[in-house]
Write a structure and sequence with these properties.
Length: 213
Amino acid sequence: MARPGKPLRRQPGKRQERKTYLVCSEGENTETLYFKGLRRELRAGNVRIEVFSGRGEPYGVVEKAVAETNRAAAQGDGYDEVWCVFDVEAPEAHARLGAAVALAARNGINCAISNPCFEVYLLLHYEELSYLTSDEACRRLERHPCGYRRRGKLLDFEMLKAGRPDAFRRAARLDRLSAGLPLADRNPSTSVPGLVATLESDAATNTFPQRTA
């Protein structure tokens, strides 16, 4: 989704403008704290973080992301990439999980999905994982030195930075182990590294300042 009025080619002597991103998640603090920390680290003023109210219903997150994407495009200020961050949950997966993924695909929206929950991605900064429920993932993360507290949804982003390469490596291993399984059966798994790597790559290759979010 290219923004109207942008030159398609880099002009000689000028740095390329950074792509614009919209990152949408449910109305909880953990994801927001993480991505705001990442935005500060990458100095990525081209990343807007939108938190929608409600408790983690994927279809609603995607539906609202579609509406925001269309609103921005209609005003001539569309996003280059839109991402929805949501959870599968366990032991019982969200009823409209598949419908949410299909709606995102129809509208060109990327998904960063964690099974059972976003805390899996954070746990992978510290340890290898096997099947666990959402409650167990939250309890285990509280034992690690990242300031996480389920009550109040606290998180210290700085404490997680050193473990990011390990999280990527462990997430890739889980992807290989669950290849071919239905999304609801890929426990544990997370595609959040794909979003993080995309933002890292953009920050590394393009240094032109953009609007703040």
